[in-house]
Prior knowledge:
- The structure is a single chain.
- This protein is α/β, with parallel strands linked by helices.
- It has a single domain, classed as Class I glutamine amidotransferase (GATase) domain (Rossmann fold), CATH 3.40.50.880.
- Helix content is about 35%, strand content about 25%.
- It has helices at about 15-25, 70-85, 95-100, 190-200, 200-205, 210-215, 220-240, and strands at about 5-10, 35-40, 55, 90, 105-110, 115-125, 140-145, 150, 160, 170, 180.
- The radius of gyration is 16 Å and the shape is globular.
- The model has no long low-confidence stretch (mean pLDDT about 95).
Amino acid sequence: MYMNVLLVQFRDDAMREHETTCLIEQGGIEPDELTTLDALAGIPDPSIVRGYDAVILGGSGGYCVSEKHSWLEPTYELLREARIAGIPTLGICFGAHAMSEAFGGRVEQRKEDQETGSFEVMLNENAKGDAVFDALPDRFWAQLGHKDFIVDVPPGAVNLASTERAAHQAWTFPGEPIYAIQFHPELTKEGLTDRVLYYLDQYVGDDKAALQAIIDHAKSSEEATRTLANFLALAKRRKTV
């Protein structure tokens, strides 16, 4: 079944295309099913979201939601429009942080706790029976790269997962096809290395030992990737209803 998926991007560098490629490959969708929208250049009309079967908000190597950029408000309006229209929406890393703020949650920057590399994600009781997370093991490895943290999920949302450093790794509104995921389901072990090497200054600077530790500790993350496929499968089911 053909899917019309909108990818809202927050990158102004070479990783913009890398993100698109990873989502296509790991999401199992065709290139012509994915339309990209550059949020940094502006979103002229949030209602454009109503022309899509699903919306994905990507990550960002150069920006943080906690920095309160002026171009974020149109993104928040687009997210609210998508929720009103019942369009399946997935926020990844920066996208998850944007979703949290858009719906009344709270995000703050904690550089001292940043998660860069492979980390073990732990699901909680709320994940049982969930369309995106139910079939996953209670613990699995995922790829992360962030300094912002979700401190409070939005009113009405439930937390689904955590790591040792982050209490909120994923949340959803029960009964709604809306998911915020702080880890990167589109990244494989190799994709993580590509991202870390590109954003070296932001994550480890000149600390070669820290870089080597991230690479040496990198784990395969097939289970985390399944959340992306599960979300798109959910969107397909809703399209047929």
